[in-house]
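Crash report, auto-generated. Payload:
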Amino acid sequence: MKQTDTVKVDHARKARDFIADKERTDWHNGAITYLREKRDLGVGGVPEWEDLRNLASQIKTNVLGNLDDYLEEFEKNALANGVKVHWASDGDEHNRIVHDILKRYDTKMVVKSKSMLTEECHLNQYLESNNIEVVDTDLGERIIQMRHEGPSHIVAPAIHIRKEEVGQLFHEQLNTDEGAADPQYLTEAARQHLRQKFLEADVALTGVNFAIAETGGVVVCTNEGNADMGVHMVPCQIHSMGIEKIIPRAGDLGVFTRLLARSATGQPITIYTSHHQKPKPGGEMHIIIVDNGRSAHLGRDDFYTALKCIRCGACMNSCPVYRRSGGYSYGHTVPGPIGSILTPGFNLKKFKELPFASTLCGACSDVCPVKINIHEQLYKWRQVVGEKGELEKSKAMPLHWAGKILSSHKKYQIVGRLARKALRFLPGAITSNRFNPWSRQRELPKPPRQSFGEWYKQQNK
Amino acid sequence: MEVGLFIPCYIDQFYPHVGQDTLSLLEKMGCKVVYPEGQTCCGQPLANSGLEHEAKPIYSHLVDTFAGFAYHVKHHYDIVEQDSDVKSVRERMYDITAFLTDVLKVNQLEARFPHRVGIHQSCHGLRGLRMARSTELQVPPYSKWRQLLELVKDIQLVELDRPDECCGFGGTFSVGEEAVSVKMGQDRIADHKRNGAEFITSGDMSCLMHMEGLLRRKKDPVKVIHLVEILNG
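Recovered output after restart:
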């Protein structure tokens, strides 16, 4: 992955801007909490839930420990099925491979179903700059594509947009009635619009949820049927997958499908679980296996388990920060807690603030269906940022002095006494001014005359 | 039983009465309590900000004087050499709540608190020290905080809409991400108020310091109170 872009993503500032609209923040928090509540209901019906999480985590440990072997096994079996397998070391290579396939079909349009990987590779922008239209065919993805935005959530990419705003957008672009905001009416309009695109397309592209080493087939989990609609109607299908999507055996799939949909939306299973094994008669099937920074991440002892992620979005739905700061505050395709432990590995300078965009409350780790210790990795990324000298000076210096004071009882006592005195006697205008972020909306604690230590000493004279 | 009392730095400086109540409560339970002089801090403010290595002298100082701020010491003291002192401190250190339920096995209290109280299940206690079941996990429900508060006479514990949402304090997060921190705290307080709490209690004074700051700014009548203040009667 390219490291040229080192402009820091300022999460705190973006979050502040988002929260400035309190009503919208509350609505956003509520909409996402609703997903989490559905997850809790769905998960509550599975007594062996914790066993499933353990099993899934162990399977992924095995996968990541033997990834080279499994990838070769997968490729061998896919080739035997008549699939064309491509390897891409980064996003650019992936995009070129897709482009080369499209060129052979002399097509100016491709229908695409959900793929966070192609978002990560910026495939749409690449193809559009080559005069090829990309049509995202999931409703949420289509909405944000029409708005020229990226996803703000990996499962519900348009969760930050209200139905009234969708109504206005569709009025402008699909000629729906002005002011119409009925979800069914709007969905029907999108459906008719997308049908036309499906009929026109020669090539369809999908993401991949699971790639089974044993069979050489890929599995795509969707709710809208658009991946199938695309793939079934064209002569050429392309499936793009990250190297970490491997599972060893077809028999392992049930563990993950049971966890995935419940964690994402509380559904027992996605509406469609589609297996793509070989090209249709007379057709072509391509699988593009993409690294794009993943093998480097696999080499990081403290962080490689982040590659277990099955992209369910439960950590986002459970994160009290994400729900109030919005997906765009993370500046990356995969936002929220999981994004904050993946992105610093891709580009530390750019994403160094993200591990700090957390209270380390740990909800992400407890909700994760593959048991990634997300909040512990956030803590460890903070240490990496500190060790590499990437902490802002304004943050590091006070802490540096605090360290000196707190390791000496004498200094600690003197500074504590002075601070309490200052807070008692100085006017509020000095101690609670706008340059002190604590006091902007909060009072400082009322300082007592005696510390506990001073009181104790007096008692035990 | 002889107990060494560790008072976190911000409680020492700003909430000495919480330390006094802890001391008094432990003595009522028959413990011989000593407060080793010379203690300062557990190092969490530095370590959570990415300066774990600069916190090493603080870690050593704490181990020298003895025990520690439970979660941080138990989970993050891997970076200092694990000599017998360090191991012994980590093994024999308890948060006051777990010490009361698991070591002293307290099953009755003299305390009376005739008020409606909401329990703030602080995250480090909840998920770090497993003091209660988090709503994410599919295991039988339990809560050591509730277990103790239910022993208090005439107390009315209120049920919250979101029993384990973070309050947004998060140490230096509270200033680094001030806007999110404040919003989280306001939302937490609103949940307690909606469900009729007069007091918000917790085993973690830092969460309460944050919420108290928000409440006092709004001149809100809801009060915060540390768990041991209630338990000590």
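Post-recovery validation: The longest strand of chain B covers residues 116-119.
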